[in-house]
Specification:
Layout (H helix, E strand, L loop, with lengths): L1 H4 L4 E6 L5 H15 L5 E4 L8 H13 L4 E6 L5 H14 L3 E5 L16 H12 L4 E6 L10 H13 L4 E6 L3 H13 L6 E5 L5 H11 L5 H10 L3 H21 L4 E5 L5 H10 L5
Parallel strand pairs: 1-2, 1-8, 2-3, 3-4, 4-5, 5-6, 6-7, 7-8
Helix pairs in contact: 5-6, 9-10, 10-11
Amino acid sequence: MHSQKDCPNIFSFEFFPPKEAKASANFHEAAATLARLKPHYVSVTYGAGGSTRQGTYETIRSLHEQGFRTAPHLSCIGATRTSLLEQLHAYRALGIDHIVALGGDLPSGMASPGDFRYAYQLVELIRAETAGAFHIEVACYPEVHPRAASADEDLRNFQRKVECGADSALTQYFYSPEAYFAFVDRCEAFGVKIPIVPGVMPITNYKQLARFSDNCGAEIPRWIRKRLENFADDLNAIRAFGLDVVCELCDRLLSNGAPGLHFYTLNRAGPTVAIWERLGLSRK
């Protein structure tokens, strides 16, 4: 993990665009609370096929106006070259200099993947059209992308994004620190030495977490699953156990050189604040 230990620690939060009035109020309350933690930046997700394109832009603009450094997600599957360039120009006009560039998913019912099929093509487009105007963040998968044919193919795909101009990466969430350390070692062997920041998913609702994990290929270790199943619907017990598990994970990652943490907040402040405070990140 030599390359990661050389990187400065970056702490960031991820939000998604709220859809209705109550969700919007909850989102703004969470953002205001998390602002006090002074993250390096916050990112905002982008729905499959651009389904939240306007919502992502409006959420980014709102957070930007509140003083956050912001990083919109942008996915290329289902998009055209023209639509992607329009969004890049709109974000530049807003003063945004950080993009999370993703492949994304093709929504059900959409026949054409658009002009691009892979995230590296989006990275290429951003670099070709905007040079160094954006810090480009990409995704990587310590436990292997669910659609990858093999671990080696997945790593080569990540390497290609880096070769096309990616500056840093965020991982899918995981609960096995060994998966992250082994992944970083393999990246080193492939000559990939950009910062690889672990994604952190707080554990507050087992059924929701199991659904997310089944969809994205993130492993929940058997011992964690069994403990969570044992708590049944006791949400307080789930949250207390989840806090212990995630804090131990984060502490081990940071102690062994991980260059920061990226929190998947799900537009809620409480779980992230609890982890942040127990880890003493404000002091660090």
